[in-house]
Request: fold
Amino acid sequence: MTPAKLRVFKQKPVRAKSVDREGQEQAALMAELRIRMPEIADLIYHVPNGGHRLKSVAAKLKQQGVVAGIPDLVLTMARGGFFGLYIEFKATPPNDAAISPSQHERIRKLNEQGYLAVVCRGHFDTMEQIRAYLRLTPTVVAA
Reply:
């Protein structure tokens, strides 16, 4: 009888789970708005455009009107002659991502249509932009 050979298995390197810093910061922003400015929290919403999806789901969403580059947050309050505020939310540096060409293009088009569309880097930058927007006089729509 021959002794059995032991086989040595190489351990695969353990990958650290990716951290969605942008998502965490945006959630913190929304929590702060719900506590400090509930009237604003009621009029702001997130556009779930990004993220990884199955190709079939992505195709259905595209057919339903999902457009690349639409900013993450929309505040549906008219101020300072603008019809509303669109915010492309990025994580605080150094964890921020680059602005894609489709995001640049969409922000440009929104600004041309009378919206204020901006890029904010992080929770605190976004709160400052929202506060600055709220200091503008309400936009009056003439009938």
In short: The chain is about 40% helix and 15% strand. The longest helix spans residues 21-36. The radius of gyration is 22 Å.
